[in-house]
User: Fold Catechol 2,3-dioxygenase-like lactoylglutathione lyase family enzyme from Aquisalibacillus elongatus.
Amino acid sequence: MGFTFKQIDHVQLAAPRGTEDQARAFFIEGLGFEEVEKPEALKKNGGVWFERGDIQIHIGIEDPFNPARKAHPALEINGLQELMHHLDQQDIAYQADDKLPGANRIYVNDPFGNRIEILEWT
Assistant:
């Protein structure tokens, strides 16, 4: 084949209309991401974009909205225990999971019910 995939550019999660401030609180205060300004031509669609390091998460407005309860992005982390402590302080619930050999991981739901996996390889 004459083409190569390089990396995932971003992951998009859906949210209900008018919930951008909730997304900001969760992704900025809860997970430590920074907001990225959307291109002017896309601002009219609503939603908000975030990044941390090489990871970008775009929150897009979907109407009608249905959360992704099974499909999910998986974010690799260093310092999972520290993140869990931070989530506890922010009153953000998560579920620990030990079913993946060689990894410590948790699942957290964003404010809209979308599932996010966060894992640290051991």
Summary: The beta strands are 11-15, 34-36, 48-52, 55-61, 74-76, 94-97, 103-109, 115-121.
